[in-house]
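Practice problem: predict the structure.
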Amino acid sequence: VWWKAYRSDMLSTKLGYEHRFNRVKLEGWYELQQLDFDDVGTLAGGIINNDDRDRDRDVYTAKMSYEIQPRYDAYLKYEYNEIEYDESFDDAGFDRSSDGYRALAGIAIDLTGLLVGDFYAGYQEQEYDDAALDDIDDYTFGAELTWNPTGLTTVTLSAERLIQETTVTAASGYLSSNLGFRVDHELRRNILLNATLG
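Answer:
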C-alpha cells in the first residue's frame, strides 16, 4: 500500500511546420516527451522503485488536409512513435522499449467560431522490443467538440482511444478509452472557473 501517490516530472518539446497550397494544407511536426518518476514509500516502510518507468517518447507526425468547403477540412494523419526506457530492463526483467504508429482519417469543422469540432478514426499498433511482451494493435478514434455559448463560457466534449504504457508484470501495455466533459467560465479577466467530468 502506498502512503503517497507517485509523482512524475514531464518535459515536452514540439517543433513543426505547415504550408498551404490553395485547398491543400501539409503539416509535419516532431515532439519529444521525457518522463521522470519519483520513488514512493509504503506503509511498511519500504520503497517502491519507479526508475524503471522513466522514458523518452519521440513522435513524428505528418498530416494532409483538404478544404472541402470553407470551415470543413477532411484530413489524413500518420504518427510514428519511438519509446525508449532509461533502464534496459524493468524490475521484472522486461525490455519495455517499443515503437508504433497511428494511421487516421478525420474531419475538422469550424462553424463561425461558436462550434468547433474534430473527429477521427483509424488504426494503431505498438511493437515491443522484448519478445515476451505481446504487440498491441486495434482500432483507434478521437473527437473533440467545443461550443462557446457566450464570450465567457466554453463547453468541451472529448473522446479518445489510445495504447498506454504500463510496468505491470508480463503486461505489454493497455488500451485506454476516455470520455470527457469540461466547462470553463471566465468569472473575471484573471479568474477562470472550470468543472471537469471524465
